[in-house]
Amino acid sequence: MTEAGSAAGPGADEERDLLGGRWLTGDTPYGAMIDRLRDFLDHVAAAKLDDATAQALDADLAAWTQRLTPMVADEAHRMFGRVRDAPGHGQVFAPAFIPDQMGDDSLHARVTFGAFHLGANYAAHGGAVALLFDEILGLPANMSAQRMARTAYLHVNYRAITPIDKELQVSAWVTKVEGRKRFVRGELRYGDLLCADAEGLFIELLPHQQ
Ligand SMILES: CCCCC/C=C\C/C=C\C/C=C\C/C=C\CCCC(=O)SCCNC(=O)CCNC(=O)[C@H](O)C(C)(C)COP(=O)(O)OP(=O)(O)OC[C@H]1O[C@@H](n2cnc3c(N)ncnc32)[C@H](O)[C@@H]1OP(=O)(O)O
């Protein structure tokens, strides 16, 4: 594999997005690998390893790092975070959200935080919740934009513990558009319980900022 587009196979989605890259679909070998990587990170985070297991895993990871090093590509040809129908669109740093409804100015999704996103006491890390909101609010902020909109601020209110390993509901909707400015609100719920809400300002970039 030398570049993302050619490696993705016949299932690859050639459509280009606002960032100038390609979107892939989950039925590609890359999509399957990313699903496994997310699951792997949750298993690493949840496990108590003995020394022999840690050493074996370290050796395997070192071999894979070496194998991947010559495949480093420029940003437009990278695949990470570009699997349209994978949880968290294949960005395993982000919690595993699955969009159910996506309009021009709103989004409803399910999300499950795993062990990888644990803060303490089986609750999600506050930074992971903020990361989720950046992704989830950023999508409707960008859907109808001509150019990419960047986060200018993101205000998160933590209202209750956000549990891991439970399916949660997350929503985001544009509340106001003023020139290049898009104001977006979001909520994260576990059933009737409001875990967190957020407000973000996203600013559409000028041509020279892209
Ligand atoms: C699952 C399927 C997916 C399918 C998706 C398909 C398509 C979508 C494609 C792509 C979208 C992809 C992903 C989206 C997801 C996530 C998005 C994450 C985005 C980020 O994670 S991105 C990284 C973090 N982000 C930064 O790295 C920003 C650093 N920063 C800057 O790059 C500049 O700062 C910039 C450009 C923001 C503005 O700079 P600038 O020079 O262009 O504009 P300026 O400063 O003049 O501000 C203009 C007006 O905004 C007001 N204003 C500015 N800042 C304010 C603030 N903080 N508070 C209140 N007001 C503020 C001013 O007061 C003025 O207001 P006024 O016009 O009224 O005077």
UniProtKB/TrEMBL annotation:
Gene3D superfamilies: Hotdog Thioesterase. InterPro entries: HotDog_dom_sf, THEM4/THEM5_acyl-CoA_thioest, Thioestr_dom. The keyword Lyase does not apply. It catalyses: hexadecanoyl-CoA + H2O = hexadecanoate + CoA + H(+); decanoyl-CoA + H2O = decanoate + CoA + H(+); dodecanoyl-CoA + H2O = dodecanoate + CoA + H(+); octanoyl-CoA + H2O = octanoate + CoA + H(+). Residues 124-190 form the Thioesterase domain. Its main location: membrane. It is a peripheral membrane protein. Coiled coil: none annotated. Residues 1-20 are annotated as: Disordered. Its EC number is 3.1.2.2. Keywords: Apoptosis, Cell membrane, Cell projection, Cytoplasm, Fatty acid metabolism, Hydrolase, Lipid metabolism, Membrane, Transit peptide. GO terms for biological process: fatty acid metabolic process. GO terms for cellular component: cytoplasm; membrane. It comes from the Bacteria. This is Acyl-coenzyme A thioesterase THEM4. The lineage of its organism: Bacteria, Pseudomonadati, Pseudomonadota, Alphaproteobacteria, Sphingomonadales.
